[in-house]
Design a protein that fits this description.
The protein has 350 residues and is of the alpha+beta class. The protein is 42% helix and 28% strand. Bound molecules: adenosine-5'-diphosphate (ADP) and magnesium ion.
Length: 350
Amino acid sequence: MNLMPDFPILTLENLATAVVLLDSELRISYLNSAAEDMFETGSKNLHGLTVQQVFTHTEQLANAMHQAVTSHASYIEHDMILGTHAHGKLHLRCAATPLQLSEPGLMLEFHLIDRTLKLAREEQMLDQTQANRLLLRNLAHEIKNPLGGIRGAAQLLEQELEKPGLREYTQVIIQEADRLRGLMEKLLTPQTATNHNSLNIHEVLERVRSLVLAEIPVGLTIQRDYDTSLPALLGDKEQLIQVMLNIVRNASQAMQGKGRIILRTRIARQITITRRLHRLAIIVQIIDDGPGIPKELRDKIFYPLVSGSADGHGLGLTLAQDFVSQHKGSIEFESEPGRTCFCVMLPLTP
Ligand SMILES: Nc1ncnc2c1ncn2[C@@H]1O[C@H](COP(=O)(O)OP(=O)(O)O)[C@@H](O)[C@H]1O
Ligand SMILES: [Mg+2]
């Protein structure tokens, strides 16, 4: 592209902020990749067009551009609505800055306001989850040790019992101690070191698919929508199987064995995952058409011991989140009756 050859395009490409450059006639000459993602279109398609030709509801944008040009200074509109083809009306913060390079021009920077709010919420959630996890691990340790003593004492007691009928009670103690121990071990597992190798995410998903289909053979379909061009991922295969399995199992349990689950894989560029910007990431979406996550659980399903079912432990998603964060990734979800989507984001860059 021959516009403004002295402008450090390479630097712009790496920005998380969406940047659009306009030439001296205020026609679009360049979009960085964050802008291409935001507006879901390429630089080439928009080259030479005006903002009025590309967007709708451009009054505020036109005003910001006018202010910047006439005052020869940056103009920031904190609360802008802009109509786009890809996403409808977007709620944006926009800065318009006049440029004086080899020829004059204008730089537009766009931030999604909703996205900023969402990131702030996610960060808060992350801090909270990490604190909770630490507390829980310590607690699990503290509970596990005396459990061994209780179980041992019950066994000794059982040997001394004269009436065999009383064994029923010692057996309850032993079995319950074992159950608690199993639970505590689940809480402690994520501490084990991970074993990262190059792997294909579709192998992971295929394994999960056949496991779940074997559990619930009729009435449930699991569709694949894979992007087969995805590169290999560096990760712990067993952990990732567990992650996907926990999420898919939840979906199939929620649908009580009938309905449709979609396993979708995609690539994402320039994506922020738990505070870090990644050039490339693999996105796995697990979508079901079940009843949705109960409203009262939505804020806390990743917390340990939170479960919507009587026989659940409430550890499935906690472990999934732990494993994913060991891959520097994160899990998000959206849920409404008829559509629940869990989105696992796994960065590809080290
Ligand atoms: N796809 C889904 N649809 C509806 N509810 C879900 C879904 N995934 C998770 N949930 C809810 O989140 C809860 C927590 O899940 P999880 O941490 O795996 O614990 P558990 O499966 O042992 O209950 C579930 O009990 C269920 O109520
Ligand atoms: Mg579960």
